[in-house]
Design brief:
- This protein is mainly beta.
- The protein contains no helices and 5 strands.
- Strand 2 and strand 3 form a beta hairpin.
- It is globular, with a radius of gyration of 12 Å.
- The two termini are 13 Å apart.
- The relative contact order is 0.33.
């Protein structure tokens, strides 16, 4: 995973049984532990959030 990748995040509302798929672009990466990383993701609705990279799925990699 790298900056510019399109990622998918599946969120689950505690009050709902259904999950929701959100898509966004990775804008920053940060090491959060010895073996863990987080990504700052800009979602299609304009929201920006830090998400653990282990919960994200790369949909399309940024081409160089």
């Amino acid at each position: 995973m790298k900056v510019g990748d399109l990622v998918q995040f599946e969120s689950v509302d505690n009050d709902d049984v259904e999950s929701q798929l959100d898509y966004g672009i990775v804008v920053k990466l940060s090491r959060t532990g010895h073996k863990t990383k987080s990504a700052e993701v800009l979602f299609k609705d304009g929201e920006i959030a830090w998400i653990g990279t282990d919960t994200l799925v790369v949909v399309s990699e940024r081409g160089d």
